[in-house]
Amino acid sequence: MTAQLVALCIDAHDPLGLARFWAGVLGWEMTDDPRDGIVLLPNDDTGFRIRCLPTQEKKTAQNQIHFDLTSASLEAQQQTVDRALALGARHIDVGQRPEEGHVVLADPEGNELCVIEAGNNFLADCGFIGALSCDGTQEVGYFWSEALGWPLVWDQDQETAIRSPHGGPKITWGGPPVAPKTGKNRLHFDLAPPAGGDQQAEVDRLVSLGATRADIGQREVSWVVMADPDGNEFCVLTPR
């Protein structure tokens, strides 16, 4: 039995504004959950929610995770870019080369995203969210494959990718060099124990796979904050 990925959480100065942006880009429903805060509910096979959480911390470096959004055609790619810009995104330069076909944007809080060109073979069978693209080592790709029970769909030249057996986006790690970690990540995963499972048993299992407990200043909370082998924070929630 393995943990379930229930949410990708994004820290935001304006959680409601950021949620409205992503709801508009993705076409997902936005709801206010008493436990989870502002949540976006998928209307496709994505399999996890997006949560927007309040923070006062400034963004100081490129995120460790970003969205890769797919396109069925050149026109569809431009439509996605135009929609995102109208909702508050902006073009940014992260070192992409002119000959690369994807468009790099930042959402209203500065979080990077890529709108991928049509005909991308790696994401050909994925939905609109083609991938969560991560900066990370081969080791951390192996860890998350075991943690979630998602098989490796790519493992070459120290680059790895996993995908749920039920479909949805891939999660990819680009291999070395990995940027030095500076402070708490603005995006993190929320996991839940398997159905009928126990939070402490799941924490113990994740520790056996290479995770560690993490202290980000949390006080008495019901979730357990952990870090993967690359030091990226994630949370293990209590069973609902």
Task: Describe this structure as you would to a colleague.
It is a single chain. The protein has 240 residues and is an alpha+beta fold. It has one domain: Roll (2,3-Dihydroxybiphenyl 1,2-Dioxygenase, domain 1). 20% of the residues lie in helices and 32% in strands. The chain contains four helices and 16 strands. The chain has helices at residues 15-26, 74-86, 138-148, 199-209, and strands at 4-12, 29-33, 37-41, 49-54, 65-69, 90-91, 103-106, 112-115, 129-134, 152-156, 159-163, 170-173, 187-192, 212-213, 224-227, 233-236. Strands 2-3-4-1-13-16-15-14 form an eight-stranded mixed beta sheet, covered by helices on one side. An eight-stranded mixed beta sheet has the order 6-7-8-5-9-12-11-10, covered by helices on one side. A hairpin with a 6-residue loop joins strand 11 (159-163) and strand 12. The longest helix is centred in the middle third of the chain and has 13 residues, at 74-86. The model has no long low-confidence stretch (mean pLDDT 94).
